[in-house]
Amino acid sequence: MDESEDRDNEPKDCDRRSAATGEARSTTSVHVTALDGLVNVNSLFTIAVFVGLSLTSPGQRSLEGNPACDAGPDIVRNLLVFEVVSFSFFLFSSLVAQGLKLAINLLNSNDVDESFRAHINARVLRLGMLASAAGSVIGCLFLLLSMINVIQIRLGLLSCGSTATGRAVAALVTLVSTALVVYISTVFYAFTH
Questions:
Q1: Sequence ranges of the domains in the chain
Q2: Which is more confident, 59 or 140?
Q3: Torsion, CA 115, CA 116, CA 117, CA 120, rounded to 10
Q4: pLDDT reading at 46 higher than 60
Q5: What's the burial of 178, exposed, middle or buried (CB within 10 Å: 0-12/13-18/19+)?
Q6: pTM of the model
């Protein structure tokens, strides 16, 4: 009778283990999908960095037509610094996300020997995802600053009071700031619930 009870308990334990494994794989696929999305967005922003760099050159005249409104070398220098810093943060964010994806995939792969299997702590995963998201946000802020410099180089300095420059900067700052607030709020909500 004891043997039959043991046999009855075995399938229940197996069912629990397979349910836990299925739940872990489901949660893991959500993490991998989120990290994929972050890497894809960072790639698009990196393209924007190089577009910004390609549109500027020293001594370029603005479309304002007034030589006093042309951007000086300090604006071009700031543009290059902001673009490089922005690219660095996007690269940091993407590399952290790719590293987490690799660890998650190794952790859940059935084809990997136990000695090669990655062991990732849930706390490390959350911190890594948060660091990757923070890198994207900081990269966006520097990209925003660099785009303001691109606008000043192409349309004229903000100090000249050009309507086109003012509208372009206002639209850029408003839309990007709103999007960043939504993004940060969503990430904060996801990490606290």
A1: 28-192
A2: 140
A3: 100
A4: yes
A5: exposed
A6: 0.73
